[in-house]
Every structure is written in structure tokens, then in C-alpha cells.
């Protein structure tokens, strides 16, 4: 019982999201890459059309998409611009812990405002000294009456400069490693002791807003804790099972865009008396690129499908993320190669895509960490 | 207000077109279909008219192939209330299409207060259906409309004519308005709109249901073919001053005898 055909509704979603990517995002992608500004107008329009926060359940004002639907949307938006997509996707990453572990009251209080107007949210896990080694985080959480007090610093936090809501991972005792981690929501950006750093200057995804966030005795009401103290690691893992295929979907979108540009260029560019598309050297590269993209897309769809079936997808999620990200880097590099000297110039779009591709191998678990997850799953089963 | 919109499904402009085996139409198996771009303006104008007249309904009508009904769903997702599909081959002529649209609109039981269409379809570029439909329904029609304002059932329409000049018409409802680019900016079908669209009514009729018979065909297509490939251009090297006079003479001669341009 295998069916690879998207439903007619999913095809319509694809068409609509691709139309948005081509008409609204692509024409402005370079401009925002150069200025590094947040394209608020485009992001708001995407929100108005229902392309953002796809993880919010219908009971709390969301549209009620399946995980697979959200992969299709992400692929299209990443086709339009990886940087803008990172801003949009970061919202899902931050809201997912709430949909996964929040109680009814928390879901109403935290999620509903995101369905009423366009707002940004930040997922705060990584710290200056703890990226891949996330279980070693040092940001602390301490009880004080009816509040928790948070102290510590987070690093590379997407959307931080504009966020109305922060999902913070912290620990009751760093010695406890993953067993000590908790997850709490800060929904007051004006709270005393919250310090948002300067915008980081990055290689790619330049329009997305990335900053350090520091908590100096930040007091958060106890009712903002997701789950119980010490359950944060499990919440983070479940969040990543959703978000990693999504990042992989963005790799597929970006790679497809790079391939489409390269194919078009190969048909126009004449060398040795014929379009380079007629040269086998180029044909080999294009065939490899297309195969890799479709393989990654299938992994993404299967990882999403597993979640929609109510199954655990940790292994597939890591397959998709590792393969998708590495595939994207290779495809983007080959696209630049097909463009030759022109590909290295920012006059042509593949230069930006290659810079953008690199981050996909790094954020939400590096390609190496994904392989560790995969190996651990395999050895624990055999 | 009962607002109708007639839309056509056409091959995507980026689709590669090939004639079918017997030359009676194009190969449709591998085509990606889209809503005729001029019809998107018609849908948008219908929705704007609805917004300005509370209690109005927008019914979208399409005659044609049944492989995909996606363009009707797209119109519903944009905000139309219901849809009618007249199932038929894709290669109907303009007369049959207009007659089928007339039959479908009449069969709906609602008398049209206004019918919006695109000014032409980008596949066969016939530019006939709105005018034929107006003739059959005995309604006034204005085409190539780039401005449309409605108040109290009276439409003030700006129509583009040669040289960029505008004609202004005042037309009382009911009327047929054929839209051109520039009249509005079509909205996107929102994702909640797409989810809602699948629950909106879509009525299906055969050609016979709407009173169209094979004998209504006025145009028979028999020999679709691709345009001949353009011969490569000729280059003349006139950098060398000594040869320039003779090259100019040669070019002028070829323009007369070969290109027959002068």
C-alpha cells in the first residue's frame, strides 16, 4: 500500500506556495540578502495567506495541516529564499514545543496570538559553549515563590530581535546533563533582565535575524513551564523530530531552485559551438543533482508521513536532515560550477544559494550529529 | 447580486506544446494546466464586486476537459461561492463554448446580474467567447476593460483602445465585462481558502445537459502543427571600411529579394 501521489489539495498548496515564492520572495531575495534587513512586508503577507505557523492545531486557530503539508509548504518557501524561509521556519521550531508539551491553557495563551497577527518567536537552546553538546547547557532555572528565575546566555537565536515569545531550555543543575533540562516560555519581551545582543553578520541567510540572548535573573511565572521540571530534553527531542524533516524540506527547495537555474543556464550558455546542456560533462552533473534532490524529497516525505501516522520518526528525521543538507551543499556547489565564472558572481542567483546551503548542514543538529543519532538508533536496535 | 465568472483552463505558458497524433488538437497528457491569466482578473473583479455588495454570490463556470478541475478549485479557494463544470473536450470552438456557458448559467436558476470573463484565452487567442455569449444572452458587453466601478447596479468601465487611449462606458446591469491586465491585482488563494474550497459545491453537467450538440460546432480543427523553425540569421562583417559600400548594397539587395521586407 504505497502511494506517492500528492492529494489534489496538496498540489494546490504547492502551486499556491510556489506562486508566492516566485512572485513575492524571489524578486526581493537579493535585495534583502544585501541589506540584511528583515523583509517584514513579505513575511506578513506569507502569514496572511496561511503559510506560517503551520504547526498550530485548528483548536487554537491554526489551519490544521498535516506534517507532510508543512513540508510541501517549506520546500516551496525555501525555493523562494532560504533566508526568509529561516525566519518563517524558526516560528514553527519555537511553537512546536508548546504544541507538543503545553497544556490546554498554555496552548490557548501562547499559540492563539500567533493566529491573530504576524508575530515572531525564538527557540533558545544553543549556548556560546554548547551547540552539538546540547545536554551540557549552563543556563539555569531556579524556583523563587510563584516564579522561576532564569540565568545564562543563548547564542545564534533566530528572530531574537523581533520575537514576542521565547522558548528557553535551561537546567536545574548542569551536572544532571539531559536529566536536568527544562523548557519554559517567556512571553514578555520587556521583562527585566532580558538582554538581546547585536545582529550577527553571517555568510548566508542574511535577512534572518540572529542574535545572542542573555537572561540576568529573568523572572517567569511558574505557569509558563512546559511539562514538568526535567522534561525539557524529551520535549526538545520531539520538537526536533518535527523540525529536522522541515529543515531537510528547505534543503530540497533550495537545491531544486539551484538545479532549475543551472538547467536554464545550461540551455542558454554556448561553448564549443553548442549549448553546454549538449555536453555530456554537464549532463552527468545535472543527472546527479536531480537524483539527489528526489532522493532527499522522498526521505522528507517519509519522515513526515511517519509522524502523521503517529509513529516515532527519529531515524528517518535524521536520515532526511543529514542527507538533505549534504545533498543541498553538493547540488548548490555543482550549480555554481555549471555557471562557471558567472556562478561566482552575485549577479546570478546560485552564488547566494551556495552560501545559504552551508547553514543547513549546521543548524538544528550538524550533519555529523545526525550521523551519531542514526548510528545510535541502529546499534540500539541490533 | 448574482455574479458569474467564466474561466478557462489553459496550458501553463512554460509547458512545451506538441500537436496530437491526428492533428486535431494538442497533446494534453503531459500538460500542466493553469487558469487563463486574464480570467484571474475576472475572478478578482467578481470578488471585489461581491465585497462591495453584501449578500452577493460569485459562481464560477468552466467548460472543458475533466482531467483536472483545479482551476475551478483555485477560484473557489480565492473566494468564489460555488462552481459549475460543463464536461467537454478541450478543443471546443468559441461558439460551442459560449453556448455551453449560456446553458450552464441559465441552468443554475440564478439570473446573472453581471458576468465577468477574461478578454481572451492565452491558448487559442480567439477573443470571441465574451462577445458571442453577450449576443446569445442579448446583453451589453464591454471588452479589454482596465477599470471597473460599480454603484447601484451601474458599471462605469474604462476600456483600452489603440494608442493607449481610454474609452469610458456606462453600462447597466446585467452586462458582460471582459477584463484586461491592469484592472486589478488578483489575490492569492490563501491556504485556509484552499482547505475551505473542497467543501464548496461544484456542479457537473454534460454538454447535452446545457443544450449543446455536436451540430453546434462551427470550427473543425484538422491540422495543428508547430510553426516552422526560424532559419538562422545572416551576419555581415562591415568593420572593414573598404568593403562597407558593397556590403550595404548586398544587404539592401537581400532585403528586397530574399526577405522581401522592402
Automatic annotation (TrEMBL), chain A:
InterPro entries: Acyl-CoA_DH_CS, Acyl-CoA_Oxase/DH_mid-dom, Acyl-CoA_Oxase/DH_mid-dom_sf, AcylCo_DH-like_C, AcylCo_DH/oxidase_C, AcylCoA_DH/ox_N, AcylCoA_DH/ox_N_sf, AcylCoA_DH/oxidase_NM_dom_sf. Gene3D superfamilies: Acyl-CoA dehydrogenase/oxidase, N-terminal domain (1.10.540.10), Butyryl-CoA Dehydrogenase, subunit A, domain 2 (2.40.110.10), Butyryl-CoA Dehydrogenase, subunit A, domain 3 (1.20.140.10). Residues 122-218 form the Acyl-CoA oxidase/dehydrogenase middle domain. Its cofactor is FAD. Residues 230-378 form the Acyl-CoA dehydrogenase/oxidase C-terminal domain. Keywords: FAD, Flavoprotein, Oxidoreductase. SUPFAM superfamilies: Acyl-CoA dehydrogenase C-terminal domain-like, Acyl-CoA dehydrogenase NM domain-like. GO terms for molecular function: acyl-CoA dehydrogenase activity; flavin adenine dinucleotide binding. The keyword DNA damage does not apply. Residues 8-115 form the Acyl-CoA dehydrogenase/oxidase N-terminal domain. PANTHER family: ACYL-COA DEHYDROGENASE (PTHR43884), ISOVALERYL-COA DEHYDROGENASE, MITOCHONDRIAL-RELATED (PTHR43884:SF12). Belongs to the acyl-CoA dehydrogenase family. This is Acyl-CoA dehydrogenase.
Automatic annotation (TrEMBL), chain B:
Residues 23-214 form the Electron transfer flavoprotein alpha/beta-subunit N-terminal domain. Keywords: Electron transport, Transport. SUPFAM superfamilies: Adenine nucleotide alpha hydrolases-like. It holds the Pfam family ETF. It comes from the Bacteria. Coiled coil: none annotated. Belongs to the ETF beta-subunit/FixA family. This is Electron transfer flavoprotein subunit beta. The lineage of its organism: Bacteria, Pseudomonadati, Bdellovibrionota, Bacteriovoracia, Bacteriovoracales.
Amino acid at each position: 500500500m504505497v502511494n506517492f501521489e500528492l492529494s489534489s489539495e496538496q498540489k494546490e498548496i504547492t502551486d499556491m506556495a510556489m506562486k508566492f515564492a516566485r512572485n513575492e520572495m524571489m524578486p526581493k531575495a537579493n535585495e534583502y540578502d544585501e541589506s540584511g534587513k528583515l523583509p517584514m512586508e513579505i513575511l506578513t503577507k506569507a502569514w496572511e495567506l496561511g503559510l506560517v505557523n503551520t504547526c498550530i492545531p485548528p483548536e487554537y486557530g491554526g489551519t490544521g495541516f498535516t506534517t507532510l503539508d508543512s513540508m510541501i509548504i517549506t520546500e516551496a518557501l525555501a525555493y523562494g529564499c532560504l533566508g526568509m524561509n529561516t525566519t518563517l521556519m524558526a516560528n514553527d521550531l519555537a511553537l512546536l514545543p508548546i504544541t507538543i508539551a503545553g497544556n490546554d491553557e498554555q496552548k490557548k495563551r501562547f499559540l492563539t496570538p500567533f493566529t491573530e497577527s504576524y508575530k515572531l518567536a525564538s527557540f533558545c537552546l544553543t549556548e556560546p559553549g554548547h551547540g552539538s553538546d546540547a545536554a551540557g547547557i549552563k543556563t539555569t532555572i531556579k524556583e523563587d515563590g510563584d516564579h522561576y528565575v532564569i540565568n545564562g546566555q543563548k547564542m545564534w537565536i533566530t528572530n531574537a530581535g523581533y520575537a514576542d515569545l521565547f522558548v528557553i531550555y535551561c537546567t536545574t543543575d548542569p551536572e544532571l546533563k539531559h536529566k536536568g533540562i527544562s523548557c519554559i516560555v517567556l512571553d514578555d519581551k520587556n521583562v527585566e533582565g532580558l538582554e538581546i545582543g547585536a545582529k550577527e553578520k553571517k555568510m548566508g541567510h542574511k535577512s534572518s535575524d540572529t542574535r545572542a540572548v542573555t537572561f540576568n535573573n529573568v523572572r517567569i511565572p511558574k505557569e509558563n513551564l512546559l511539562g514538568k521540571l526535567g522534561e525539557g530534553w524529551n520535549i526538545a527531542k520531539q520538537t526536533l523530530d518535527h523540525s529536522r524533516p522541515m529543515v531537510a524540506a528547505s534543503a530540497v527547495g533550495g537545491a531544486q531552485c539551484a538545479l532549475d537555474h543551472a538547467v536554464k543556464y545550461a540551455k542558454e550558455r554556448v561553448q564549443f559551438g553548442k549549448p553546454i546542456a549538449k555536453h555530456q560533462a554537464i549532463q552527468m552533473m545535472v543527472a546527479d543533482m536531480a537524483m539527489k534532490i528526489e532522493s532527499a524529497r522522498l526521505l522528507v516525505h517519509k519522515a513526515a508521513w511517519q509522524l502523521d501516522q503517529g509513529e516515532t520518526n527519529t531515524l528517518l528525521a535524521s536520515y532526511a536532515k543529514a542527507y538533505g543538507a549534504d545533498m543541498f551543499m553538493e547540488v548548490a556547489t555543482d550549480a555554481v560550477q555549471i555557471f562557471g565564472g558567472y556562478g561566482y558572481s552575485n549577479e546570478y542567483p546560485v552564488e547566494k544559494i551556495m552560501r545559504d546551503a552551508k547553514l543547513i548542514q549546521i543548524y538544528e543538529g550538524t550533519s555529523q550529529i545526525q550521523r551519531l543519532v542514526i548510528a545510535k538508533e541502529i546499534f540500539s536496535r541490533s | 447580486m448574482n455574479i458569474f465568472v467564466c474561466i478557462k483552463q489553459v496550458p501553463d505558458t512554460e509547458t512545451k506544446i506538441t500537436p496530437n497524433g491526428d492533428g486535431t488538437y494538442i497533446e494534453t497528457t503531459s500538460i500542466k494546466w493553469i487558469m487563463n491569466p486574464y480570467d484571474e482578473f475576472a475572478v478578482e473583479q467578481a470578488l471585489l464586486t461581491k465585497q462591495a455588495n453584501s449578500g452577493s454570490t460569485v459562481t464560477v463556470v468552466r467548460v472543458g476537459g475533466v482531467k483536472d478541475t483545479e482551476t475551478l478549485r483555485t477560484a473557489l479557494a480565492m473566494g468564489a461561492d460555488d462552481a459549475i463544470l460543463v464536461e467537454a473536450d478541450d478543443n471546443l470552438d468559441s461558439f460551442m463554448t459560449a453556448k455551453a456557458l449560456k446553458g450552464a448559467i441559465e441552468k443554475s436558476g440564478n439570473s446573472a446580474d453581471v458576468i465577468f470573463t477574461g478578454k481572451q484565452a492565452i491558448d487559442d487567442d480567439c477573443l470571441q467567447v465574451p462577445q458571442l455569449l453577450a449576443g446569445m444572452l442579448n446583453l451589453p458587453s464591454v471588452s479589454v476593460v482596465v477599470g471597473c466601478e460599480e454603484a447601484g447596479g451601474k458599471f462605469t468601465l474604462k476600456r483600452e483602445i489603440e494608442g493607449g487611449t481610454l474609452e469610458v462606458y456606462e453600462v447597466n446591469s446585467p452586462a458582460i465585462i471582459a477584463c484586461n491586465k491592469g484592472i486589478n491585482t488578483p489575490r492569492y488563494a490563501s491556504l485556509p481558502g484552499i482547505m475551505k474550497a473542497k467543501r464548496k459545491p461544484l456542479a457537473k453537467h454534460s454538454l447535452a445537459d446545457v443544450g449543446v450538440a455536436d451540430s453546434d460546432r462551427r470550427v473543425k480543427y484538422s491540422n495543428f502543427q508547430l510553426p516552422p523553425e526560424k532559419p538562422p540569421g545572416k551576419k555581415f562583417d562591415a568593420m572593414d571600411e573598404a568593403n562597407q559600400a558593397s556590403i550595404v548594397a548586398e544587404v539592401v539587395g537581400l532585403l528586397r529579394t530574399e526577405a522581401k521586407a522592402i
